Amino acid sequence: MRWILLLLSLVLAGLIALAVGAGDFSAAGAWLVRDPWGRVTLFDLYFGFVLSALVIAGFERKVWTSLFWILPIFFLGNLWTAVWFVWRLPDLWRRLSSS
Fold first, then answer.
1. Which one of 11, 70, 90, 97 has the fewest beta carbons within 10 angstroms of its own beta carbon?
2. So where are the chain's domains?
3. What separation in angstroms does the CA of 17 have from each of 29, 34, 53?
4. Between the CA atoms of 73, 39, 31 and 75, what dihedral angle is there, to the nearest 10 degrees?
């Protein structure tokens, strides 16, 4: 599972790199804010960030460690969340299976 998440993270990083090189971030951002489906997409994205942050906050024991993982989510997105999952997946599975 970690390898799959790592592979998907690399694909996402590649897509981001392609978009930065070829896309118009200002025009895309303007469309997202203007279009109703764009606003739904942004809300959905940030709602997912909040859910990810809640999972991380519930898992990490130290406040500073939680903040280290949570705060960048809102700027780096699911790529950062995937890094946390790749890093913590064995411990997460262990805790979930012992419940």
1. 97
2. 2-97
3. 17, 25, 25
4. -10
